[in-house]
Hints:
By secondary structure, the protein is α/β, with parallel strands linked by helices. The protein has helices at residues 39-48, 67-78, 90-94, 98-112; strands at 25-33, 36-37, 54-61, 84-85, 88-89.
Amino acid sequence: MESSTPLFERRPEIKSTPGLATSDRVILCGPIWAGRVAGPIRTWLNEHGKQGGQFVWVPHSGANRAWPKAIAEITDLTGHPPSRVFPFAQSDFAKGKAEGKATELAASLKQLT
């Protein structure tokens, strides 16, 4: 990647993910950086996003206002929005809500199988 590439459009090198074409669902977990998906996730979505089935997105960020931009970016890279979004904000951990949200996430994912 050229050094002239804007910071939030960079796609750092990652190791390949074999067998994605046979996956029905992919669960993506990762941080949101300044309203954008993290660079390694962007790289992965660029390489594999149109090959897989449904995407479940579990973003982490300091504030929930960043999620819509990241979801739009995922939609641009994959051709469709995530089938489900389970966001976690920094305040969820600070207020003791993260464990309950994680339990809810697990129950929802179990229903998808």
